[in-house]
Amino acid sequence: MMTAMLMALGFQAASSALPTDEEIQEAQRWITRELGDKGDAVASPFFSFVYDDKSFADLVSSWTVNQTKRALNDGSTEYTLEYLDPRTGLLVRCVLVAYRDYPTIEWTLYFENTGDHETPILRDIRSVDAPFTYETSEAIILYHNKGDNCTADSYQPLEDPLLPNTELNIANTGGRPTQTAFPYFNVSWGDRGIIFVVSWAGQWSAKFKRGDKNDLRILAGQELTHFKLYPGERVRAPLIVIQFWKGSRVHAQNVFRAWMLEHNLPRPGGSLPLVPQLAACSSHQFGEMIHANRDNQIFFIDKYLERGIKLDYWWMDAGWYYNKTGWPHTGTWEVDLDRFPGGLRAISDHAHARGVKTIVWFEPERVAPETWLAENHPEWILGGKSGGLLNLGNPEAWTWLVNHVDRLITDQGIDLYRQDFNIDPLPYWRANDTEDRQGITEIKHVEGYFAYWDELLRRHPGLLIDSCASGGRRNDLETLRRAVPLLRSDYIMEPLGNQCHSFALASWLPYYGTGTSKTDTYLIRSVLCPAFNACWDQRDDTLDWGAMKRVLEQWKQWAPNYLGDYYPLTSYSLKESDWIAWQFDLPQKGTGFVQVFRRANSPYVMAQLPLYALEPESHYSVVHVDEPEKPSSFLGKELVEKGLPISLTEKPSAAVFCYQKQD
């Protein structure tokens, strides 16, 4: 028998995602220490920059300092710290929010030239530059993840000891914030620590610098800043989040998941996105949308429904617009009426009449040559007439884009706006900067990107946005406050990598999606998550549609538990010889599920997997979803101490066990 001892995780379970009083008090102590308990002026801030070749720490004593606070509607407190240079008129504003119900603090810096002349050079802005120290004999460990790079090991968990008198530098690549690196971190001093997030939809960097004892300094921000500001000009810096924890790291991750759900996940029309959410597309049959047309899109929708597969969304991906060389030829954002008489509205109306909403793909920032944008407005393109990056920092380009896409959403009856980003923006940004304005093009683009989405959401309050960037390469926190990642990576369908994507990503994000065109139960279950996109060929009557429908109906039964707490039950592994498993638990309802995969080369037939967060003296009914007529009953302490006994005789196998508290 394979036991959990073979797959030790190195941390203990917690009973729920509720933060402890001690954790919330730790956050308040940090506020008191950094801001003062009487609203005193802050003389030694937790961020840094160099201004006119002098460090802010050396300048601040001669600046005017002001601090105010106000209560927010959710009971949290917002502090505004202002530092004004009386000589040049540079105003530095730090807006900090301390959450009432979580041990979580966040802040954003803003820099404004209130004077009549250009400022001196402002450089090396670090949105956080602060020490964190705990007395402990334990090692300091940085837990983090790889970013997405369309590989099986995207999101792989990483564990780096932070040794005395060393530093670790981490940064994304190409300007897409979750490409190759992931800006979500957990630092552990044994039984306590902090979760740290740097949110910037551009090029960020973070440094973890340890001294000779237990002191750790964290520095992070936009990677390159070296610019002057014009009179009246204001720019912003990355958002920083700190969450304090004590006890266990898995508890900390679940508190973070709960905070993400309550304070960050978009709520189109006032409600959370659907869990589960089932979409379907024909992209794998028609070469994206290049060979799609009105009739075959309607045919596919109808066939799904005829087969009893109830869709939430019909997904129309890249290629519905006029293009000369295929779907990457973006920049003419008009529906190809030769293939879609009546526009996409004919398909949307047909879907809506059958209770199905529509998803439509856009990629407005990448502009190909010989398209409408490149030919008519090369001044809007970083790259000009030859194509490149639509400059969202250009007010005229931004205004055109908002109005044009708003019209398409309205006229074509689009319910979910899917935005892709298949280009590294960093070379375009930096090539457009002058020596005394390095970093400005990037800042203006990031500001324009968020403002663009905010305006679409203002005009369409029920709109849901999908945050795609060659898969999952643009899922910084502020993006995820406006959108959900329906395609967490372009590495799709292959089972091992997708099992590992789910395993790793669930510790950080409560909502994400992927899809498949595979029809085998093992392969389908390997990609099921809160949102799933079916890519099955409705023209093929030989497929076992009954079996696929059954897998989806089972998924719909357990999927609401994705919004609960998450517990890895094995180690992360990409080996064909290993098992991998996890548990989602919804403590408010006493329900949850365990998902287990025995891979193709595993020699193990059985496993005994200890579960988490169950009430020791309560009875739980456990049902294998493929054998619903054979429920088992266990005491909670049996499942926690001894584990759930599992036998999978075939390889590969994918099993799901649902449980319900009985008393």
Features:
663 residues, alpha+beta, Immunoglobulin-like, Beta-galactosidase, Chain A, domain 5, TIM Barrel, 9-stranded antiparallel sheet, 7-stranded parallel sheet, 22% helix, 30% strand
What does this structure look like?
This protein is of the alpha+beta class. The protein has 3 domains: 2-9 and 561-661, Golgi alpha-mannosidase II (Immunoglobulin-like), CATH 2.60.40.1180; 21-263, alpha-galactosidase from lactobacil brevis (Beta-galactosidase, Chain A, domain 5); 268-487, TIM Barrel (Alpha-Beta Barrel). 22% of the residues lie in helices and 30% in strands. The protein is built from 14 helices and 37 strands. Strands 4-5-6-7-18-14-13-10-11 form a 9-stranded antiparallel beta sheet. Helix 4 packs parallel to helix 5, helix 7 runs parallel beside helix 9 and helix 8 crosses helix 9 (440-459). The longest helix is centred in the last third of the chain and has 20 residues, at 440-459. The radius of gyration is 26 Å and the shape is globular. The two termini are 31 Å apart.
At the first level of CATH, what is the class of the largest domain? Mainly Beta
Helical content class: 10-25%
Structural class by SSE content:
alpha+beta
* Oligomer type: single chain
How many structural domains can be distinguished in the coordinates?
Answer: 3
The termini sit apart by: 31 Å
Q: If you average the pLDDT, what whole number results? A: 94
How would a textbook summarize the main sheet? 9 strands, antiparallel
Number of strand segments = 37
